[in-house]
User: Which sequence fits this backbone?
């Protein structure tokens, strides 16, 4: 993902929007890649309660908060985004595991 223009080089709102759209496309591609791993994790787990692992969640949140600080981002905003993503993943995993277990 290479910027066409750096933020300081953007002279118009359209310049900024082009770059934000480029980043958003890349983010969706990364979310799709992450989702494939979440799906695989759900295939590996056998009990829906495994989807919620508080120790793992806290470790992930701490890593992302530290990363945010290193990048001069608001760590609370990053945590909110990741908790939302993790909550969605937990529900998704549980659904897959429950559906698979019902078929047995």
Assistant:
């Amino acid at each position: 993902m290479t910027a066409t223009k750096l933020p300081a080089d953007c002279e118009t709102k359209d310049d900024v929007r082009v770059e934000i759209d480029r980043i958003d496309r890349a983010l969706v591609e990364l979310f799709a890649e992450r989702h494939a791993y979440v799906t695989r994790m759900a295939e590996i787990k056998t009990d829906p309660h495994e989807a919620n692992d508080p120790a793992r969640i806290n470790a992930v949140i701490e890593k992302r908060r530290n990363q945010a600080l290193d990048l001069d981002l608001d760590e609370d905003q990053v945590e909110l985004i990741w908790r939302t993503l993790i909550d969605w993943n937990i529900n998704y995993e549980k659904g897959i595991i429950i559906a698979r277990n019902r078929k047995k």
